[in-house]
């Protein structure tokens, strides 16, 4: 978990980068930008708003041979070792970004490199390097009094409500390649920012594994439980799965299977499905791990608990009290109507 509320921008360097394939140049500022009390809160909100509003999917610097060959990892380490070097290193970062700007769709824009202090991540207060890029300009109007009339002047500038691209490199978990958050609002070339410029992989911590395992369970429910059982059992399997994650601090696969699978025939189906699909979710060798509560909460919001019927009726099952669906909802077949039915038991209707 992160907390950016007390984040302070210590220094800021602003440069401009063009598109190399269109023979556009880059521009490097000679000195850092002179921050003042008026613009500081505006820039802080511009830089950090997108990170507060998105899921915390962490990345880490990576390289096929060795982490020391990752250029951005080395540049970030240089800054964290000597924070006074941030402006000179920001020039190297801008040049590196320019070298990756070869695709004709990549837009030119301003590059902001900030040294940030007092960020909280995993209950640790750390520094961070923020790298941001503005690409799209918006039209806006200025007004000027000319004699007896008010004249409109059409101008263009950066919309401070939307960050186009950005990353936060936390001075945390250096040995694994640092923990990194990134945003990309203009995904015209998805590989440009993540792969070419940053060269990152997903950070495989408990948050990552928890999300991946729950996604694996969701697909197992759709691909195996639903065809073998019915929609109710698909929903209830995911219900039991999420509740297992919610009430336990640590995941143990065999305990999980014993608790969530009512049909013993599905036990072997689950293990076979994991052999076939586990690598896709990066859980092929995972049988135990600490559970990340934030990931469970996010997953619960996304999992559907509604049975949609072809008679334009919906049955919504309660994920908080799953035993209700187990006890009070029955599925059957009506010979006379040649239709399936759900029988729902209750004592009285609740007021909405």
From TrEMBL:
Pfam families: NA37. InterPro entries: Nucleoid_associated_NdpA (IPR007358). This is Nucleoid-associated protein. It comes from Flavobacterium gossypii.
């Amino acid at each position: 978990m992160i907390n950016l509320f007390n984040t302070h921008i210590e220094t800021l360097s602003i440069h401009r980068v063009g598109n190399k394939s269109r023979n556009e140049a880059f521009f490097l500022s000679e000195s850092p930008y002179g921050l003042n009390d008026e613009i500081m809160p505006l820039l802080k909100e511009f830089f950090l708003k997108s990170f507060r509003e998105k899921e915390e999917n962490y990345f880490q610097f990576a390289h096929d041979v060795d982490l020391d060959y990752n250029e951005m990892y080395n540049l970030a380490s240089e800054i964290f070792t000597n924070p006074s070097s941030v402006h000179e290193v920001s020039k190297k970062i801008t040049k590196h970004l320019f070298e990756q700007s070869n695709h004709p769709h990549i837009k030119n824009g301003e590059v902001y490199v900030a040294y940030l202090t007092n960020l909280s991540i995993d209950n640790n207060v750390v520094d961070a390097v923020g790298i941001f890029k503005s690409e799209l300009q918006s039209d806006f109007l200025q007004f000027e009094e000319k004699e007896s009339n008010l004249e409109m002047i059409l101008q263009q500038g950066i919309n401070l409500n939307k960050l186009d691209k950005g990353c936060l490199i936390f001075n945390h978990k250096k040995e694994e390649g640092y923990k990194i958050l990134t945003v990309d609002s203009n995904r015209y070339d998805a590989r440009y920012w993540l792969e070419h410029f940053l060269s990152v992989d997903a950070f495989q911590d408990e948050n990552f594994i928890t999300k991946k395992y729950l996604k694996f369970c969701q697909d197992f429910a759709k691909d195996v439980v639903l065809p073998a059982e019915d929609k109710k059992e698909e929903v209830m399997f995911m219900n039991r799965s999420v509740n297992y994650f919610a009430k336990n601090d640590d995941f143990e696969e065999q305990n999980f299977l014993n608790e969530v699978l009512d049909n013993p025939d599905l036990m072997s189906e689950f293990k076979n499905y994991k052999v076939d699909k586990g690598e896709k979710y990066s859980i092929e060798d995972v049988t135990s791990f600490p559970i990340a509560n934030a990931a469970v909460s996010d997953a619960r919001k996304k999992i559907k608990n509604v049975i949609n019927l072809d008679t334009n009726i919906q049955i919504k099952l309660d994920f908080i009290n799953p035993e209700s669906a187990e006890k009070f909802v029955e599925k059957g077949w009506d010979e006379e109507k040649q239709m399936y039915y759900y029988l729902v038991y209750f004592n009285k209707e609740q007021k909405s």
